[in-house]
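Shipment paperwork, digital attachment
Item: protein structure file
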Amino acid sequence: MSLVYGAILVLLIGCMAMLDVRFSLVLRRAPRHIIALILGIGFFVLWDLVAIAMGFYYRGESDGMSGILLTPEFPIEELLFITFLCYMTLVLHAAIGLVIERRRGDA
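Attachment content:
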């Protein structure tokens, strides 16, 4: 049992949170972003669960994974990855929007 992959994902989520807080991009800007994050995570978890039930996804074996399963074929690292993916997307969207907004202001 190894926690390497999960720890890296937690570290990446923490890095996204630091960028978010530093530039007030997502979570401090509007409560609707929290709802968007929760809905995004929920959507992809549901997507994975349906795919697992239909036999499309299987849990891969890796020395870096913890072996902790939330459901059969659904490791905890998958939830961490989905959270990172959704949060990163919101942070990138907000950052790009902020850059565009500032460039328009400078012009």
